[in-house]
User: What shape does this take?
Amino acid sequence: MSRSDMARLDVIEMFHGISFPGHLHTQDSLQLALKFPFKDTDILIVSYPKSGTTWMQEIVTLTSSRGDPHLSQTVPNWARAPWLEQYYSAAVLEASSTTPRVITTHLPHHLLGPTLRGSKAKVIYVSRNPKDVLVSFYHFHKIANFFPEAGSFPEFLNRFLEGTLPFGSWFDHVKGWTSQTATMNNLLHITYEEMSLDLHGAIKRVSSFLQCPLVEDEVNNCVKHCSFSSMKDNKMINYTLVPEEIMDHSKGSFMRTGKIGDWKNMFTEEQNQYFKSVFKSKMQGCTLEFVWEQEKEEPHANEQISRKNTEL
Ligand code: A3P
Assistant: This one.
């Protein structure tokens, strides 16, 4: 069965209080994900939607291929790094003989953490400024017909803050996974902003975490093939292979702007203040500090990403 055979565009699967699009998820596939026998050699990419998941799939594919774009230009991302909880992944993973297996998931830590316990699988957690996530998700709702109506932007913003959008609460997701960084030494937390400000450095960080050190030329090839412009034109990644009735490409592109700070084009000052106050209260007790608004000119910006706090 191909990814586009199962329509169920209007179906929502509620699972542990979180809604998942029935187009790609079933109760069985969600249950199976929680029983998945991880291998120690597995690489697991984890993110809340619109945080740079596809970008990281590309970075991992290219790093593992030492910068050779053949795999990333011939195999769709969902076939080489399937989403664990989606209905087709069991078949894809069974048929796969590659080591390491690259697997993707949007599941929160409180659901998948117990499944991973004791495993040495390498976990890469990707996060992004929630305001950019929200704006990207809003636009994605307009093109992806497997989501409920996006509604107006203020309504969508409220649903994001309440945690009632598909895939649940951004706050629970980020807090759940990043709280593991102190204890899980097989977990790498990397931000979209870090990838954006210093892609070269981010690729080196990922390759060293995966114990796949690359020579300079190989890193440069990875950078070239996972730049926004290369990925935008790669149909194995840009979702143009997905039929029009599932993703309406006339309403926008999956590879949309690829920018930091696009939220400023959507948020009013009032919405920004409201978002910040909810963020502050929901992130209370979170020991990790996030940096989202670094400027490119700042020296060593990438080094500060996960260590220093600035304005949200
Ligand atoms: P925008 O909608 O803000 O443009 P995900 O893969 O988690 O669904 O995230 C999609 C977001 O990542 C989109 O954001 C997309 O443009 C952005 N993205 C994907 N590849 C990128 C790249 N190479 N450079 C910058 N942004 C990228």
